[in-house]
Amino acid sequence: MTIHDTDIIVIGAGLAGLVAAAEAADAGKRVLLLDQEGEQNLGGQAFWSFGGLFVIDTPEQRRLGIRDSHELAWRDWQTTAGFDRPEDHWPRRWAEAYVDFAAGEKYGWLAAQGVKFFPGVGWAERGGQGASGPGNSVPRFHITWGTGPGVVEPFERRVREHVTAGRIAFRFRHRVRGLNITDGVVHGVHGDILEPSDVGRGEPSSRVVVDDFDLNAGAVILTSGGIGGNQELVRRNWPTARLGPAPEFMISGVPKHVDGAAQAMAEAAGAHLINRDRMWHYTEGIRNWNPIWPMHGIRILPGPSSLWLSPDGTRLPYPNYPGFDTLGTLQHITTNGYPYTWFVLNRAIIKKEFTLSGSEQNLDLTDRDLRKVAGRLGKNVAPSVQAFMDQGADFVVRDTLPELVRGMNEAIGNDTVDYEKVAREIADRDLQVANVFGKDPQLAVVRGARAFINERLIRIVKPAPLLDPASGPLVAVKLNILTRKTLGGLETDLHARVLRPDGQPMPGLYAAGEVAGFGGGGMHGYRSLEGTFLGGCLFSGRVAGRCAAGAVD
Ligand SMILES: Cc1cc2nc3c(=O)[nH]c(=O)nc-3n(C[C@H](O)[C@H](O)[C@H](O)COP(=O)(O)OP(=O)(O)OC[C@H]3O[C@@H](n4cnc5c(N)ncnc54)[C@H](O)[C@@H]3O)c2cc1C
């Protein structure tokens, strides 16, 4: 008989792992929380995140006059996910359960742990393909006061309290390489102990092995994250038939250790990995002027007014507008073989409409500094955006259009950008601004969205000619594809038990967070409504921690 070192082993101390460990320990179980990285990385990707959470029918929404409902959100989820495969059985069940959670217990559960939200609710993924198409019908992106670290904080606190009480123990620099399985039952893990590393959070750490380990438990919960930091794997899983070939150049929106190795390890041990071709990469990536991890890219969370141009300067067709339909625009870009695209805008638009995703890009919100947050209403461009305008390799800032186009061509090292095309696109667009109606669908959506007070006050500029010198200088931003989230994953049932290809659970093995496609092996289907990744970690981590605890004597 195997001697157990603990009741439950959790692999990965990101958000899903912290939640699972805290919940299992709350249920009285002893937990070992393993991570290949050092303690400085506690919280994983969630620490870097913007802290945006999908929540339905909240006080914040109601205060802004937004009428949201479970019915509307579930309809939005289904039109966005586009579930269409036999293996979408558990993903769909998880999606239903998650939307129930987001419309029910989620708000109160987080509030009870001290999580608060910024009063303005963001409108991510606005859709654009009509009422039956993908996208959020209403704003639902709730920004956590304290951004990503504010989401991690309560769960880290709970875990550390359990560490003090002796119920949870950390094992950092423990890289799991395999599962211990006897007669089909998962009862432990083995792997390498990596040498200590004092690199900063998110930086690549040493892979020098100093020892090995073998640990056994009543249950194992896998919360090892996705594949977005492993470009080779992203390319291998890329859905070429659906999206065209993967771009030759991509930047990374996640640290290098988000490498998918543990997911592959589980698959090799008999777990069913489904929907591996479903991924959520962004079309508005910019190279970080101050990188932390290799190929470090930042995603712009854009308001809707920038003009989006192909490499030669042709405006992208409706509905490929900033912030509308990430996958649809990605498909347009990749099937046309564009290596990059451009935003053309001006200072007035960048000031109000550019938010950069990430906790370190929004220090006012991350530090909960009310005075600095109020500065967003002032005249100056946000310091993090200004830093990119001054130092970002993808930014061109000039006073006149001929100078701007010259700068764009200098940035790419050839004459691909056609001045005449860009000038014509801008002139045609600007001719539509004089009336409060017109034939330009992008301007129509901008005007409609400004009916919502939050958008008018802090998010979207009043339509005005792009070339108006009073709104200048002009800005062009070269946009790269940025890898981020893994939508497919290990198939799990509603108890977070990992399933085998025959649909039967692998006894003793649970999974949560990105490695499980945030539940079921892909609860988002093809697309996300945003804010659903952190929320997916919270929900699936909670289920996995509770169910594993319930199954261990
Ligand atoms: C900049 C940025 C902004 C974001 N903004 C948002 C947002 O606003 N809203 C939202 O919903 N989502 C957002 N996300 C996405 C979200 O943060 C992630 O999807 C989520 O945090 C993933 O959590 P996880 O616990 O599943 O995995 P991770 O955070 O990746 O944690 C996995 C952990 O497992 C460890 N691990 C992996 N393999 C092994 C192994 N073999 N042995 C031991 N340990 C291992 C890793 O070291 C890591 O610590 C953002 C992400 C980023 C990077």
Automatic annotation (TrEMBL):
<dbReference type="Pfam" id="PF00890">
    <property type="entry name" value="FAD_binding_2"/>
</dbReference>
<dbReference type="InterPro" id="IPR027477">
    <property type="entry name" value="Succ_DH/fumarate_Rdtase_cat_sf"/>
</dbReference>
<keyword id="KW-0285">Flavoprotein</keyword>
<dbReference type="InterPro" id="IPR014614">
    <property type="entry name" value="KsdD_DH"/>
</dbReference>
<dbReference type="InterPro" id="IPR036188">
    <property type="entry name" value="FAD/NAD-bd_sf"/>
</dbReference>
<keyword id="KW-0560">Oxidoreductase</keyword>
<protein>
    <submittedName>
        <fullName>FAD-binding dehydrogenase</fullName>
    </submittedName>
</protein>
<feature type="domain" description="FAD-dependent oxidoreductase 2 FAD-binding">
    <location>
        <begin position="7"/>
        <end position="534"/>
    </location>
</feature>
<dbReference type="GO" id="GO:0016627">
    <property type="term" value="F:oxidoreductase activity, acting on the CH-CH group of donors"/>
</dbReference>
<dbReference type="InterPro" id="IPR003953">
    <property type="entry name" value="FAD-dep_OxRdtase_2_FAD-bd"/>
</dbReference>
